[in-house]
Write a structure and sequence with these properties.
This protein is mainly α and 197 residues long. It has helices at residues 2-45, 50-71, 78-99, 110-135, 140-161, 168-189. It has one domain. The protein starts with a helix and ends in an 8-residue tail after the last helix. Residues 1-21 form the signal peptide.
Length: 197
């Protein structure tokens, strides 16, 4: 009887541990959604100009690369989680600082509208990744691959916005990368692999 109770307790503990690990992964991706939403909002209300948003996208790329590295082995250790939280907290403070400085953007400029559309696509992609984590359709190594892909898109946006102007050709390049990334998300979510536990 005691052995059965011990085994049942271990299963419950393991299940709770696996659920907590999945929640932590989902939380880090949700944080990406929140940060990208704040950048888009800043572009739309003029509290961020295109150049500032480009700098913030550089930082988002760094966060995505950190997530990709940390999730590559399928684990998110306490140390990795703390490091990721610090990077996301810094990105959050930088967004807040940029939104509240005296630099204003023109939300109706073509450049801003192009970047707004690109950042909106980031939000959609990150939500799709988060949904895959929540449903179990994505494993942590798959999330790692997808966050690495999102980092590439963020870098393209940052590079395009570096001079404060996102041109049509630059946006087309970003959209091409976004389309490839979108296909990759779809493939990973429907490849039959699911998280265990």
């Amino acid at each position: 009887m005691e052995t059965r109770l011990l085994i049942a307790s271990l299963f419950v503990a393991f299940g709770a541990s696996a659920a907590m690990a999945q929640t932590n992964t989902a939380n880090t991706v949700q944080r990406d959604v929140n940060q990208q939403t704040r950048i888009e909002t800043g572009l739309k209300d003029g509290s961020l100009n295109t150049k500032e948003a480009g700098r913030l996208e550089t930082e988002q790329s760094q966060v995505d690369r950190l997530q990709a590295r940390d999730l590559k082995d399928g684990k998110l250790t306490l140390k990795e989680r703390a490091q990721l939280r610090r990077a996301q907290n810094k990105a959050s403070r930088d967004i807040q600082s940029a939104e509240h400085n005296n630099v204003k953007g023109n939300p109706e400029s073509k450049s801003s509208e192009r970047l707004q559309a690109d950042v909106q696509r980031n939000i959609q992609q990150e939500k799709r990744i988060e949904q895959g984590v929540q449903s179990g359709a994505l494993t942590k190594p798959e999330v790692s691959t997808l966050e690495r892909g999102q980092a590439r898109v963020d870098r393209k946006e940052a590079k395009a916005a570096r001079d404060g102007n996102v041109g049509r050709v630059e946006q087309a390049n970003i959209q091409h990368a976004d389309n490839k990334h979108s296909e990759e998300i779809l493939d990973k979510k429907h490849n039959g692999k699911t998280r265990k536990g």
